[in-house]
């Protein structure tokens, strides 16, 4: 059976998470001023793999490689706008 878990992301820069191999990211959003990611997980022991997520602010520089990675969403935070990507290590 699947469940949905919530994971805290760093507000800016990268966050490394160990997620189950078959986890699917569903959403990124703010809760009480903190940035979170929601993903599906299985309720049975499943191998995990490290996954890296990067938060970039509008108007801030970032690596050109990041645009090749998976865009997850944009979050609005009291005048700030954050864009969340899952990095894949593509160069």
Secondary structure elements and their pairing?
Blueprint: E1 2-8, E2 13-20, E3 25-31, E4 34-42, E5 48-57, E6 70-77, E7 80-87
Antiparallel strand pairs: 1-4, 2-5, 3-4, 5-7, 6-7
Structural class: mainly beta
Secondary-structure element order, as H and E? Answer: EEEEEEE
Number of domains: 1
Assign a percent range to the helix content.
under 10%
Q: Into which percentage range does the β-strand content fall?
A: over 45%
The poorly predicted ranges are none
**What characteristic shape results from the CA principal axes?**
globular
Which value, in Å, is the CA radius of gyration?
A: 13 Å
| Strand segment count | 7
Number of helices: 0
Q: What is the arithmetic mean of pLDDT?
A: 90
* Major beta-sheet overview: 4 strands, antiparallel
Strand arrangement across the biggest beta sheet: 2-5-7-6
Distance between the termini: 36 Å
């Amino acid at each position: 059976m699947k469940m949905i878990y919530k994971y805290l992301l760093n507000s800016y820069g990268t966050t490394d998470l160990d997620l189950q191999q078959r986890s699917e990211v569903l959403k990124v959003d703010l809760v009480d001023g903190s940035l979170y990611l929601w993903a599906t997980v299985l309720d049975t022991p499943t191998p995990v793999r490290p996954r890296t997520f990067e938060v970039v602010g509008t108007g801030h520089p970032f690596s050109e490689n990041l645009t090749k990675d998976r865009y997850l969403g944009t979050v609005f935070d009291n005048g700030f706008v954050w864009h969340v990507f899952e990095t894949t290590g593509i160069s």
